[in-house]
Every structure is written in structure tokens, then in C-alpha cells.
Amino acid sequence: MTQLKELLSTLEHVAKHPAQVINKCLEDKRLMIGCTPEYCPEEIVYAAGMLPVGLWGGATSIRNANQYFPAFACSLVQTTLELGMRGVYDQLAGVIIPAHCDHLKCFGQDWKVAVPQVRFIPLAHPINRKLEAAVEYLKSEYSRIKSVLEEIGGKPISHQDLSEAIEVYNLHRKTLREFTLIARDYCTTITPSVRHNVIKSGYFMDKLEHTQLVNSLIGELKKAPPEEWKGQKVVLTGIMAEPKEILDMFEEYGLAVAADDLAQESRQFRTDVPEGKDPLERLARHWSCMEGCSLLYDPQKNRRFMLKTMAEESRADGVVACIMKFCEMEEFDYPIYKKTLEEAEIPLLYLELDLATPSLEQVRTRIQSFAEMISLKP
After folding, report:
1. What is the pLDDT of residue 359?
2. Is the backbone of residue 334 left (phi > 0), alpha (psi -120 to 50) or beta?
3. Which CATH number applies to 23-158: 3.10.20.310, 1.10.10.1100, 3.30.360.10, 3.40.50.11890?
4. Alpha-carbon torsion angle 325, 326, 332, 334, nearest 10
5. Label partner for 102 (CA 20 to 30 A): which of 109, 199, 229, 326?
6. Helix axes of 192-200 and 159-183: crossing angle, nearest 10 degrees
């Protein structure tokens, strides 16, 4: 039990204090590249010997970013730009910003002007991603990013470096998938906040080190029998379940996380990079293999069936949609999976989240009411 607590404490500390990890990289003279939501080719950064650092904004007030974004812009991009303008990310050698949505398209151009001291590395994914032409195009994008990172790092990135990085990341994905399955049997120990911290800490650590810690955590959990849970379990969907007070409310009202479909969490590791000879092509094909995200072109909207299956297989009592305020991509998907879940008689809670100006008491009321409602479900 002591070892388990130490592992959880270490991962929580990293998730809450990423600056200390970054400072260690500075001491070791290891370059760092910021990776903004949602899908950056971190393997190329890792292959360059650099540390990919996840940039997902944070709970902070907006003082500077409103010069570039209107009030109705997503708070994730607003707070990330705000932190950049305050100099929080000045230690980074560059930042990769994909252009998945209208806000991210603006974000990249705004970053170039507002945070000129941190090099902007643009990335445009193909929309119709199932075409072979899309794979070839994305491969060319990744090749360009590889060239930029070689320029920044001052050394070439070999095919072997890329292949080894892919294997490190696929192992990390496999380990986190195993953790999320194990976690649902230990809901007393792995609370919603703890589960989140275990996953989030991986954005600020070397993936090999994080994999080792999570593997050790899994081993410690397996030493004890599954814990009895008298509360309810839910599936989370959306971009992210932050600010952290939201997850504390889940615990307060007896809600555990059975599974998730969050962009910040399971969407990042539920699909491995496929096998192949050309590592850049493997990474490009990975984009075409992903499913169930609002940013992925999917005319059939299969995410609704994925959510239904996820809730049923995890024996969840309901689904919680964590919708980032003004996130059009998630808002477009919501009515579609809402109908499917209603037809399957799976309770659904809509939470509107905002990192900059959170309405926590309103969220608290909704979570409490939902917890009471599903507890009465036969």
C-alpha cells in the first residue's frame, strides 16, 4: 500500500507541477516542443531527442489573449495563448499547433504574432483522411515538421529513431489502455481526480519513464482484490474534464469514472500506430485509423455507437458530456449521440465547461442532481 501511495503521489505531483519536470529538462539541456490539442506527431519530437510537452491551457483569467480572440472563443485556446503571452512557455524551443477547427486555425496565426519568442510550427491534417492521397499529404506534412525539428535540434532524425519512438509510444498507449480497464475495479483508490492525474502526467514526462510508473501502478493495484463500489459509474466524453474541481465533485457525489472518450485522455491512446516499413507513412496512416472524435471526418457519425457500446461494456450508469464552452465541433456531435443514448435508455448529463470563467456552482447542482437521478434507476 505504501508503494501504491508513493506512485500515485509521484504522478499527481507531475500533473499538478509540470514546471518542475520542465526545469529538469533545462538542467539536462534537453530541448522541449509544445504540443497543442488534439493530435500532434509527438513521435517525431521524441525521435529528435526532445521532450513533447502537452499544452492544454489551464484555469486562469484572461488579461492578454482577448486582444486576439473574441469572448466567444474556446477557453482552451484562449488560456493557452494567455499563458504563452505571460512567458510561461518561453523555455520551449517551438510549439506545434494543428488546425483542426476554426479556433485552432486562428490560434496558430495569433501565436506567431503574440508569442514570437517560441517558434510556431504549423500542422494541417487532411479532412477526407481515408483516401490514400490524404496519407501521402500528411506524410509530407510530417516530413516538413521533421525537417524543422532537425533544424532546431541541429541533428538528423533517422528512420530507426522514428521507428523506435513509435514503439515507445505504442507501448505507452497499451499501458494506459490497461490502466483504464484496471481502474474501474478500484474506484475507491482510483478516484476521478486520481485517474485524471495518472493520465495527464504523461504529457509532461518522458514516455518511457511514464510507462514504467504506470506499469508499476497496475502491478500494485493487482495485488489487492477488486474494491466494492456502492456509488454509480459514468462514462466521460468531450474534450477534457477540467477544471479539476469538476472531478472532485464527481467523487463528492459518489460518481466513479468507468471509461472515457475524452480528447485529453483515452482518444490519445486507444489506437496504435499501425505496422509498416516507412515510419512517417505509419504515423500518417495512424490518422486514418482513428475513430470516434468530433475532429475526425465521419459522415456516419459512428461515435454515437462507440459511446453506447462503451457505456454498456463498462456497465456505466450514465454518460457525462463535458462540453467546452463555444466548442462547435463537440456541440455539433452532441445532438446525434444524445438521441442514440436516449433510445438505449442510457442517462446523459450535459456539462458546459470553461477554463477561464468556470460556473462551478451551477455545474455542482447539475452533477448532484444527475447522481441522485441515476442512483434511483432500477
Report:
1. 77
2. alpha
3. 3.40.50.11890
4. 10
5. 199
6. 170
Residue length of the chain = 378
The confidence score (pLDDT) of residue 61 equals 86
SS3 30: coil
Rounded alpha-carbon distances, angstroms, from residue 322 to 234, 285, 325: 12, 29, 9
As beta bridge partners, residue 233 has 256
Q: State the chain's mean pLDDT as an integer.
A: 94
CB of 243 closer than 8 Å to CB of 59: yes
pTM: 0.95
Instruction: Check if the beta carbon of residue 267 is closer than 8 Å to that of residue 292.
Output: yes
Provide the edge-to-edge strand list for the sheet that holds 51-54. Answer: 51-54, 32-35, 94-98, 120-123
**Number of C-beta neighbours around residue 96 at 10 A:** 25
Element (H, E) at 226: none
Q: Kindly report each contact of residues 49-54 with a partner whose C-beta sits within 8 Å and lies 24 or more positions away, as own/partner.
A: 49/153, 49/155, 50/93, 50/149, 50/152, 50/153, 51/25, 51/206, 52/203, 53/18, 53/22, 53/92, 53/203, 53/204, 54/200, 54/203, 54/204
Alpha carbon distance 236, 215 (integer Å): 23
Report pLDDT for 26: 78
Positions in the chain short of pLDDT 50: none
- What local confidence, expressed as pLDDT, does residue 1 receive? 61
Exposure string (b/e) for 27-42, b if CB count within 10 Å is 16 or more?
A: eeeebbbbbbbbbbbb
Confidence at residue 146, expressed as pLDDT on a 0 to 100 scale: 98
